[in-house]
Design goal:
- It is built from nine helices and nine strands.
- The strands form two sheets. A seven-stranded mixed β-sheet has the order 1-9-8-7-2-6-3. It has a two-stranded antiparallel sheet with strand order 4-5.
- With 314 residues, the chain is an alpha/beta fold.
- It has a single domain, classed as 3-Layer(aba) Sandwich (Rossmann fold), CATH 3.40.50.300.
- It has helices at residues 13-18, 33-39, 48-80, 101-116, 133-138, 153-164, 228-249, 257-260, 264-287; strands spanning 8-12, 89-95, 121-125, 170-176, 181-190, 195-199, 220-225, 296-300, 306-312.
- A hairpin with a 5-residue loop joins strand 8 (296-300) and strand 9 (306-312).
- Its main location: cytoplasm.
Length: 314
Amino acid sequence: MVEMAFNYEVIGRAIWGDLTKKVAHDQLTTINQETLAHIKAFNDQISMDDVMTIYQPLVQYIRLRYQQYERALVERQNFLGEPVLKRPFVIGVAGSVAVGKSTTARLLQLMLQAEFGEKSIALTTTDGFLLPNATLKARHLFERKGFPESYDMEALLTFMTKLKEGAEELRSPRYSHEISDVLPNTYDTFKEPKIFIIEGINTLQATPNAPVYVSDFFDLSIYVDAATKLIEEWYITRFKALLARTAQSGDATNFFWPWTQMPLSQAVEIAHNVWQDINLPNLEQYILPTRERADLVLHKVSGHQIDQVWLRKY
């Protein structure tokens, strides 16, 4: 039995998928297995059945929420007698490490681009707002990387404020998973998107000693959920695959290279320790408790299949 909060309507995969029959399928002409292989996070799993059964109705729901948002924005500005400003509809995507939230965010971006136009949909991750490794080490926080205190929350909140104020151009720092660090002086640039997706483990977390939270800027929030034991399995499976890919590349600058130089059993034991000492406490203490703040929960079971959609009632 899936644990659930009282204020969600829990919709099974088949029932949610039936909603697809009521809407157009224009987005699907731009998506195939090759496209999915390109956008999915490393070692994640997703299928065309997921696209049609889960994501197609979700995109239509997002369109509905976007239309409501636009009407409310116009009505508010008319009431105040002020000009209507371009302010993006912001979607937050949260969830644990290795749960597949990056794939969800990228697929939503692709499908929404088919709806609204390629330049209208932007995506970034909060990884770029992690403090650089050198800073984390200097502050004795490297072992807490991913925890709330390891982020430059002032920079992230400033970014979100400018985004919602309708800044003509925005830049977000870029993060490299190959070196597991923020890239110095490297940014992604965004120019007045209609919809902005921000993905990360901390998007729904409360910000200590701050008057606002990142989630205060969201118009729709999505949490990608699964049983903790499953997430751990996916984390270890991904770790092994990353080691294999790194060893094959021969790239000694890759963050995972040192683990390729030891027996696999030893490397996997280290990965288990990282899960137990860092990722699991972070999930239990800071990530999972934010699930009930989400407007919509995508619940996964074995094989990354989404078996339920939880839709907030109120």
